[in-house]
What we know:
Low-confidence stretches of chain B: 120-125
Distance between the termini of chain A: 54 Å
Mean pLDDT of chain A: 91
Number of domains of chain B: 2
Low-confidence stretches of chain A: none
Largest interface: A-B, 123 and 81 residues
Order of helices and strands of chain A: HHHHHHHHHHHH
Largest sheet of chain A: none
Largest sheet of chain B: none
Oligomer: heterodimer
Amino acid sequence: MEKMILTIMTKYGLVMSFMVVGVVMYLAYRISDRLTKGRIHGSAIAIITGLILAYIGGSVTGGKNGLADVSFFSGIGLMGGGMLRDFAIISTAFGARIEEMKKAGLAGAVALFLGIFTSFIVGYAIALAFGYTSVVDATTIGAGAVTFIVGPVTGAAIGASSEVIALSIAAGVTKSILVMIMTPFVAKYIGLDNPQSAMVYGGLMGTTSGTAAGLAATDPKLVPYGAMVATFYTGFGCLLCPSVCFLAARAIFGG
Amino acid sequence: MVIFGVTILSFCMFIGMFIGDGLGKLIGVKANVGGVGFAMLFLVLLVDYLLKKEKLSAEAQKGIQFWSAMYIPIIVAMAAKQNVVAAIKGGPTAILAGVLAVFVAFLLVPSVSKLAKKSDVPANK
Lengths: 255, 125
């Protein structure tokens, strides 16, 4: 009986991982609704759950691939592998429209670039401070401080280890959750009460889920403005971090 | 047909990865330089062009939308296969990087907003 189930789970790994991840997503969104009243977005809870499962999987098997090393869940490795990940990330650009980009104007663009570069530099500095001195490692952690997508995309592109990629995801998720929770409290102090500053805010913070949830808790009318600019953030981050940022870091700190 | 949307998407991925690998070779680094970003940029431009020409059917759009809706679940799977055990040994690096990035961004909001009011008033009057 057990052997039969295991055979199905491994033989049809990819499809079975849809089932497993679906259950995780369902529970995460329930927790988001019931326990946090939607304040912490379900997607953030789901990603943290993923990281926790990876920790459990890694502890149990002693392997390097988190939950995917547990033969029962080997399909997770296919679903979360580089090919489908990049494919799905690229597809999110479908929602972005050039007209909306123009609406954000100069301030939106300035915020976007400033947001990406400052987050990257801050993340890079922290990585250095904690002894991740290789350019590849520090760049990946810096990119993780941009968003939890830009981190792994950059890490995979420049050949970082899974350990460092996990750190970059954790940095991005921390950022996203913090933005969700803190926004309503700091809104007053940073003048976040009009569409214009909401767009600037979206560009500087960048995390779409964080910005959307944070603004919703502040003033729901501001959500589309912030989210609109934030949508471009991950795309530009995926463009700039493995190219301009990586090459600049390599030029400054050596190869 | 739904497959047409998926085809467009994979075509954009091919072009993006090709540019990314090519740039890496050109500069002499063993990396895909910005491939995913180029692919996204390309997808935005191509979809914009096709929508204006009314050449992108609702069915074809569904082919792209499906994958974009699968994005968070795939990221969850990606998170679940990382070497988190080793990462935790790295101490508070990740948390500190995330916290400080947010803090610095908060500080920048007022000054960039000011710039917004001074220099240009976008179309959302």
